[in-house]
Amino acid sequence: MILIDRQSTHWAITLNRPDKLNALSAALVEELIQAFDAAEAAHTPLVSLQGEGRCFSAGFDMSGVETQSEGDLVLRFIRIETLLNKIASSPCFTVALAHGRNFGAGVDLVAACKLRVAAPGSTFRMPGLKFGLVLGSARFARIVGTPEARRILETAATFDVERASANGFIERIAGPEEHFMVIEEALARVGALSAESRALLYGVLDTEQANTDLAVLVRSAAVPGIHKRIEAYLASSKKA
């Protein structure tokens, strides 16, 4: 479900479920966790993350949700949070190359990366709170600031790449034809410091709150009735 181009200078990971808009199934999440573990073990200095097809990622894969137990759903959300924290805390310099219409956990994947790039016309929406789920909200607020995060998350508003650039969520607007240049510039940025100095910098600037974020996610996902809340959200989305 992912493609990994292991180059000598960096690894390029591509989400490869274009028919499902790269939605995050349980299997895809586990493949990504393994890929980032492998990149760290290989001391890869830079890892880029992009999506095949019409968008970077449509977020949590709702396929078959009705057949899964509430416990299974909670575990799936926990594993996504585990993946997000792994990326955010990675010693690798991580680059998200987003495009298209991105939702929920797909937006959270972008937020977890150190350099966030999006193509012209990209949009983002984080509707998790519509069904009572707190996933990635705190990390998003740490990037864009609490007032802006509140404005966006309270209404699950879609925001475009221009707003994302203005509030700092996206650092650079660049289409696929510019990705080579983005990676080259990112490699130069990485090479400006030794691996040891870069690790020290990442450590002192680390704002991650892994245990707190996970605890909040579990509390929100474990409230009984997650099936009904998701069903109600999907029904309202179809009407809209």
Give the SSE map:
Blueprint: E1 2-6, E2 11-15, H1 26-41, E3 46-51, H2 70-88, E4 93-98, E5 101-103, H3 104-111, E6 115-118, E7 123-125, H4 137-144, H5 146-154, E8 159-160, H6 161-166, E9 172-173, H7 179-191, H8 195-205, H9 210-222, H10 226-239
Parallel strand pairs: 2-3, 3-4, 4-6, 5-7, 6-9
Antiparallel strand pairs: 1-2, 7-8
Helix pairs in contact: 1-2, 2-3, 2-9, 4-5
Poorly predicted runs are: none
Looking at CATH, which topology would you report? 2-enoyl-CoA Hydratase, Chain A, domain 1
Sheet having the most strands: 6 strands, mixed
**How many distinct folded domains?**
1
N-to-C terminal Cα separation, in Å? 31 Å
Arithmetic mean of pLDDT: 94
Organism: Paraburkholderia bengalensis
Protein name: Enoyl-CoA hydratase/isomerase family protein
Description:
With 240 residues, the protein is an alpha/beta fold. The chain has a single domain (2-191), classed as 2-enoyl-CoA Hydratase, Chain A, domain 1 (Alpha-Beta Complex), CATH 3.90.226. Helices cover 49% and strands 15% of the residues. The chain contains ten helices and nine strands. It has helices at residues 26-41, 70-88, 104-111, 137-144, 146-154, 161-166, 179-191, 195-205, 210-222, 226-239, and strands spanning 2-6, 11-15, 46-51, 93-98, 101-103, 115-118, 123-125, 159-160, 172-173. The strands form two sheets. Strands 1-2-3-4-6-9 form a six-stranded mixed β-sheet, with helices on both faces. Helix 2 (70-88) packs antiparallel against helix 9 (210-222) and helix 4 crosses helix 5 (146-154). The longest helix has 19 residues, at 70-88. The two termini are 31 Å apart.
